């Protein structure tokens, strides 16, 4: 815990102490990542349910910064069943991207580290890996082949100085190129562009990213992500930068391609409309924790957590006239200094007496619906 002086700022001495302590912790964790020739038995594990593509259990991902430890993901658990789409929603900064980067082992290291928990990835051949223990050299083979990620901003994900074709060919050659000639790889790249709904695929193959529109670039990213038929697709706000019609097309494309290769999607978005259209299950995150999860019907018809209720109230409804849309008052607590009670308490308009107690654990409302809120303790709602 960082000690601030009376001005509210960290002293130079205190800042140096934090840096030293951070280095000690991250050096230890880095050593584990970089080990060579780690026996597979160290990261082999068992899925709790073989029908899941991914199981995240009690994941803690922290950033060891010079002003203190940011608990970006602080005990997140949820599953992604095979063939299903799980939507992850939550306010900006609640840890959605950090969760997905943890799954891909693409955190900004050495500051960003998984400090606790398990991420079990079902490889589909009877094997399952715990990503938190998988060494970096093995991860290169898992990314692309078993899981891939579509990022929010395609322009920053594509390399501006290489043609689209060269970038797609490289991915295929690296992950799926064994025994394939250059012509065969090119043919596959063009086929992928066609599958992603690009009309002039031969032309686009020879273009640079800046010659494409935002929607086309996003399609290229989708083609790239799906090039090796991954079992799990993580889409981090794949349509936020696009207008509504292109957004609908991209979502359709993603859904069709997912069904074609029978994979699962973890879809991160701010947009509840996108969730309603795409997701089978919904996970609601707040300040680095899951506050509610359930099927899409449960979350939309019976939102239980006051934060989810607020989110639902803040979306426009066709045919309902309102002067001003509802917005949740207040702001998220400082991730460096989280309270020891419910993180939503300072903004919650539905508090009960017990809410000053420790952080509420998850309560089961149905076999698939869980919420972490004192209102549902003792089986009584809103005492
Ligand atoms: N590299 C980093 N160094 C320090 N803190 C970071 C870093 N990356 C993310 N964080 C912190 O982790 C927390 C979660 O960030 P994250 O990017 O996961 O939010 P998000 O839910 O994806 O938000 P958005 O909806 O805006 O994309 C934030 O408090 C953020 O400041
Ligand atoms: S536990 Fe209490 S403060 Fe927290 S969300 Fe539920 S009602 Fe609100
Ligand atoms: Mg994000």
TrEMBL record:
Gene Ontology, cellular component aspect: plasma membrane
Bilayer topology: Peripheral membrane protein
Basic and acidic residues bias: start-end ranges: 13-22
Pfam families found in the cross-reference section: ABC_tran, oligo_HPY
The organism's place on the tree of life at top rank: Bacteria
PROSITE patterns associated with the record: ABC_TRANSPORTER_1 (PS00211), ABC_TRANSPORTER_2 (PS50893)
Presence of the UniProt keyword Membrane in the record: yes
Domain ABC transporter as annotated: residue spans: 54-312
Region (Disordered): 1-22
Signal peptide feature range: none
Keywords, alphabetical: ATP-binding, Cell membrane, Membrane, Nucleotide-binding, Transport
InterPro entries: AAA+_ATPase, ABC_Ni/Peptide_Import, ABC_transporter-like_ATP-bd, ABC_transporter-like_CS, Oligopep_ABC_C, P-loop_NTPase
GO molecular function list: ATP binding; ATP hydrolysis activity
Gene3D superfamilies noted in UniProt: P-loop containing nucleotide triphosphate hydrolases
Main location per the UniProt record: membrane
Keyword Cell membrane: yes
Compartment annotation: Cell membrane
GO BP: any one term: peptide transport
Family per record: Belongs to the ABC transporter superfamily.
Record PANTHER family: DIPEPTIDE TRANSPORT ATP-BINDING PROTEIN DPPD, OLIGOPEPTIDE TRANSPORT ATP-BINDING PROTEIN APPD
NCBIfam families xref list: oligo_HPY (TIGR01727)
Name of the protein: Dipeptide/oligopeptide/nickel ABC transporter ATP-binding protein
């Amino acid at each position: 815990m960082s000690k601030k002086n009376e001005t509210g700022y960290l002293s130079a001495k205190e800042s140096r102490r934090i840096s030293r302590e951070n280095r000690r912790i991250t050096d230890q964790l880095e050593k584990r990542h970089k080990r060579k020739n780690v026996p597979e038995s160290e990261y082999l594990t068992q899925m709790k349910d073989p029908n899941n593509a991914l199981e995240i259990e009690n994941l803690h991902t922290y950033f060891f910064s010079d002003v203190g430890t940011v608990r970006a993901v602080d005990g997140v658990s949820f599953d992604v069943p095979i063939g299903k789409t799980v939507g992850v929603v939550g306010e900006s900064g609640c840890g959605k991207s950090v969760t997905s980067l943890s799954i891909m082992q693409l955190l900004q290291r050495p500051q960003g580290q998984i400090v606790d928990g398990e991420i079990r990835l079902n490889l589909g051949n009877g094997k399952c890996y715990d990503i938190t223990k998988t060494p970096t050299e093995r991860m290169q083979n898992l990314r692309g082949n078993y899981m891939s990620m579509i990022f929010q901003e395609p322009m920053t994900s594509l390399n501006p100085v290489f043609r689209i074709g060269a970038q797609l060919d490289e991915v295929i050659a690296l992950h799926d190129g064994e025994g394939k000639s250059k012509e065969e790889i090119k043919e596959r790249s063009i086929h992928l562009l066609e599958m992603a709904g690009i009309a002039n695929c031969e032309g686009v193959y020879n273009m640079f990213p800046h010659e494409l529109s935002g929607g086309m670039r996003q399609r290229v990213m989708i083609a790239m992500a799906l090039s090796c038929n991954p079992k799990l697709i993580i889409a981090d706000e794949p349509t936020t930068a696009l207008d509504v019609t292109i957004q609908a097309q991209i979502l359709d494309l993603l859904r069709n391609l997912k069904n074609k290769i029978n994979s699962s999607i973890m879809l991160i978005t701010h947009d509840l409309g996108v969730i309603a259209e795409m997701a089978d299950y919904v996970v609601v995150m707040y300040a680095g924790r899951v506050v509610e999860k359930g099927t899409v019907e449960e979350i939309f018809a019976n939102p239980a957590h006051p934060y989810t209720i607020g989110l639902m109230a803040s979306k426009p409804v066709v045919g309902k006239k309102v002067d001003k849309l509802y917005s949740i008052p207040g702001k998220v607590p400082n991730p460096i200094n989280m309270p020891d009670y419910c993180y939503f308490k300072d903004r919650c308009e539905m508090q009960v007496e017990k809410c000053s107690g420790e952080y509420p654990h998850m309560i089961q409302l149905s076999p698939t619906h869980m919420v972490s809120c004192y209102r549902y303790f003792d089986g009584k709602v809103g005492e």
